[in-house]
Every structure is written in C-alpha cells, then in structure tokens.
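Dear H.,

Thanks for agreeing to be a second pair of eyes. The structure we're designing against is below in token form, covering all 199 positions.
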C-alpha cells in the first residue's frame, strides 16, 4: 500500500482528487503540488513508498524525479493517443476529428509517450467548440480518476498497461498560439475553423 502520493494538479481540482484518494487509504500522506518548484521540493524528500500522479497539468515532470520512484508515475491526460501534448481539444477540432477521448498512461521522460493504461473515447458533437469539448473531456477524465483512485491509493502494484500506442505528434502551446492569430490573407473558412478550435 502506498505510504505517500505526490498529486500534481490544479488548485481547484486538488481538494476533490485528494478526497477520492484518502477515502480509500485514510493513512495516506498527500503532497499536493501545482508547479515545477513545489514538485522539486516534494520530490527532494524520501521517495520510498511514494507514487506520483498528475492530473490535467502542463508541468513536465523531470526524468530525475521519475527515476526516484519505485514504480511508475501516472498521468491523466485530457486527450486520446492521437492528440498528445497541449491544447488537445483545440487541435482535435482544428484537425476535423470526429472522436475525442481521455488517456491514463505511465509517465516517461518525453511528454505523453509512456505506456498507456486505458483510453476512453467519445464522439465530438457537430459544430462543437473547444470549450464544450474541454468540458466533456473533463467529465470523462474525472470519472476515470475516480475509477482508478482505489488502486492508486491502496495498491503498490503497477496498473496493467500497453493497451495501445500513441499515434499523434506532440502539439505545443506555441503552435496553438500561432493558430490563434488571424492574418489578413486567411479565407473565411480558415478563420471560422481557427475560432472554433482556439477562440
């Protein structure tokens, strides 16, 4: 049974996710971290019996931190294997995808590349905007966290993985920012496409 979990997530999500984990292991020590600095501080302590879980974070966990762990670290990613990286909902809409999803995977030194534990897919509604798709993805990934919380909090064994590979290229914040710009020579169709995808 894990003695300690480092939970890397946002300020709003942290209390809810912490409650889910401690429900299944009341003795669990939880370090909630939100940025690279607090992650570095938390990982400087004894990592024996510690598990790292990331939930909807843009923080890239250094390879050195991953190496300190006795077992895999896990990331709940708001996109399917076709869309690793950032702004997943926006790129899915921009690329004309008809399905989306959320992914639980082991962390690796490279972003969104570790063995996949599970993917949950759902259809993208016609004329869906990125905000709507992000909300739907959040609903699915929160349920995924709830489903895996018992194991994460109370079982040292790794979760079986390798169900399917990553297939998309990693998208970046910089690429999304470029697509948010509206140049004078863009067609009306392209402007509408970018607005739906990125606002």
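And this is the sequence the design step returned. I haven't edited it by hand at all.
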């Amino acid at each position: 049974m894990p003695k300690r979990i480092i939970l890397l997530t946002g300020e709003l999500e942290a209390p809810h996710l912490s409650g889910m984990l401690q429900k299944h292991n009341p003795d669990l020590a939880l370090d909630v971290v939100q940025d690279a600095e607090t992650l570095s501080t938390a990982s400087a302590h004894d990592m024996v019996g510690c598990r790292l879980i990331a939930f909807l974070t843009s923080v890239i966990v250094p390879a050195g931190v991953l190496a300190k762990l006795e077992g895999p670290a896990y990331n709940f990613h708001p996109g399917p294997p076709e869309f690793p990286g950032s702004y997943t909902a926006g790129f899915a809409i921009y690329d004309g995808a008809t399905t989306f999803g959320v992914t639980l995977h082991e962390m690796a030194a490279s972003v969104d590349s570790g063995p996949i534990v599970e993917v949950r897919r759902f259809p993208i509604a016609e004329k869906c905007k990125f905000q709507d798709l992000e909300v739907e993805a959040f609903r699915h990934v929160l349920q995924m966290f709830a489903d895996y919380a018992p194991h994460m909090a109370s079982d040292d064994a790794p979760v079986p993985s390798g169900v399917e590979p990553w297939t998309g290229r990693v998208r970046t914040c910089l690429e999304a920012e470029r697509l948010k710009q509206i140049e004078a020579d863009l067609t009306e169709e392209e402007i509408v496409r970018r607005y739906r995808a990125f606002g």
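Two observations from my side: The mean pLDDT is 95. The helical segments are 14-24, 36-43, 63-68, 88-94, 130-154, 173-180, 188-198.

Warmly,
E.
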